[in-house]
Amino acid sequence: MHLKYESTLREPLVDGVKDYHQVTEDIISPIEAKPGKLWYVGFVISLMLLGFGIFSVTWEVYYGTGVWNLNKTVGWGWDITNFVWWVGIGHAGTLISAILLLFRQGWRTGVNRAAEAMTIFAVMCAGQFPIFHMGRVWMAFFVLPYPNTRGPLWVNFNSPLLWDVFAISTYFTVSLLFWYSGLIPDFATVRDRAKTKLRKLLYGIASFGWTGSTKHWQRHEALSLVLAGLSTPLVLSVHTIVSFDFATSVIPGWHTTIFPPYFVAGAIFSGFAMVQTLLIIVRKVLKLEEYITIGHMEAMNKVIVLTGSVVGCAYLTELFMAWYAGVPYEFATFYKYRAAGPLGWSYWIMMTCNVITPQVFWFRKMRRNVAVTFVMSIIVNIGMWFERFVIICTSLYRDYLPSSWSYYRPSWPEVGFYMGTFGLFFTCFFLFAKYFPVIAVAEIKSILKTSGESFKNGMQKYEEQPAEEFEAGLHHHDDHHHDTHGAVAHAHN
Amino acid sequence: MAVKNFVVASFSDEAVLFPAVKKVRTAGYKIHDVYTPFPIHGLDHALGLRETSLHTAGFIYGITGTTTALSCMSWVFNSDWPLNIGGKPHFPLPAFIPITFELTVLFSAVGMVLTFCYLCQLAPFVKKHIFHPRQTDDLFVMAIEVTAKTNTEELKSFLASIGGQQINEQRAEAGWWYGRFDKDDRLFETKRVEAVNA
Hints:
The complex is a heterodimer.
Chain A: H1 20-32, H2 37-63, H3 78-102, H4 108-133, H5 160-192, H6 197-206, H7 214-247, H8 259-285, H9 294-324, H10 328-338, H11 344-356, H12 364-367, H13 370-396, H14 412-435, H15 441-451, H16 453-457, H17 460-463, H18 467-476
Chain B: E1 3-11, H1 14-26, E2 31-35, H2 43-46, H3 54-80, H4 93-119, E3 126-128, E4 140-145, H5 152-161, E5 165-173, E6 176-178, H6 188-197
Antiparallel strand pairs in B: 1-4, 1-5, 2-4, 3-6
Helix pairs in contact in B: 3-4
Protein name (chain B): Quinol:cytochrome c oxidoreductase membrane protein
Keywords (chain B): Membrane, Transmembrane, Transmembrane helix
Pfam family, one (chain B): ActD
């Protein structure tokens, strides 16, 4: 039998002795079992956070945005900070599912499903902030360009804030479609092995009547590939457009051309950190260590150290340009009020968490250490939150007119709103972890015979074979099979 | 949509499936479909299926999005309600690029997913016959249509000789119908028979 062949030097992506049925069993059985005590505790805490968030937002809608501590000088505070932070977190999911698909990175199969789910939930959380920041939230639909009786008065298509509306909503829709189209075959797997009537009914509806027909798989593959191709520039465009919200303005500290790549790198950096936080817990609780291996974590830590360093370079470039450009306002923003001044502490938290600490990942031992990875993932997310806070608030609180200089600290409804989005995020994630296949079952099966540990071990004898002998065996079996992936290989399993 | 007879065989390994597909086709039997738990590269070619044109559809949807965005925005800014925004041009192409790009992606993605669902006849409450419950788990299930010329017994022993397992005959609806997976199959033809009896 010809199979795609992968060198045994490469770490296996699925540990242990598995066949296809065992893969199904391992990934689907947590859906069929009653959730553990920890799940209930976590779920209830999330619901409570969500409840408090809803209360805080209701308070804000009832009394107006005045209950937030924003003022004439600092017009964007925690709300926009949180918006940018959540959108950024979402980026890792699309990066894993789309960009790594185009680069044919096999390791994405273990983590893509959960990462995409994270993207969708993070974008849902992000969207809340600009919507409620509008104040009269019942008028939020005014941002949509539709023929209306007010003129018609159209939205300003030149405005980066409107570009954001299009970018975020497109991003959400496309991510959802990509995620769900991947879920359909896995829902069918749950459906066909369901023992209870309710489960058969619900997963039957969710699986859209999927059968696994060869023609359908062929179209499914084509669909995934094109959606990945579309999502790749999309994900880069989304944070680029978010950075335009700042970069197209004339505020010192915002008005820089470096923003798009700097924001995209930061987004991937924080997103991967969040994926690590979630998956370290998921693999432990759902006992999926053989699918989300240390190798997966190491791969993601490499991305973290790369993007963290890109972000670090951006910080230094900004500092250099603030001096080199010779604009006094730019210089003052960076050297007097960002790196120093009343909010200077936030700048140094950002620098420490984003640039200094991730450098531990240059060491292989650290990249492969679960505890270090977990702690680092949280540090990175704190750092990235402060990056957004620093960019937004330290540019605003000292403006051109010293008489309007101000300070900013959030009020309780702002903090409550942020906590509420954590509630929303984790409520969704807990439901996902319980009712959805958290790993793409079909995709794992498709890499099992190339990257599964037990199958790789079987390859040893071919690697030790002399080239002539291997060549002879090659012609002997060459009677069928077109391998679309180039890596030709031949092995009897 | 028709109820047909099938001879169904399961295979547990791709290594057995590929030669089997080839032998069944050479022997002149009509393979209705092969159901697999995951995409198997090359199986579509082995079955003689043509390449899908879904990409082309995606491209057409994409340029529809591009055109929609550009034409709508320029219509609004130039003829429906021309506004002087700080003396800026009425057709600022660079400023239109983000929205044009987003709509291109949106139209293409939504259009392709809908087309995919339409072509594969996938929707909530759509039900299709499942030949073997493990075809979405670990078995590769081949369904061969029984025609007037088919000698079923011969076919069965032929399938067994090329590595097929759990070979059986099934009478099933070949298309889809509205239904629930927690209820038993009701074939269209059976229903008609019931109506006649009543």
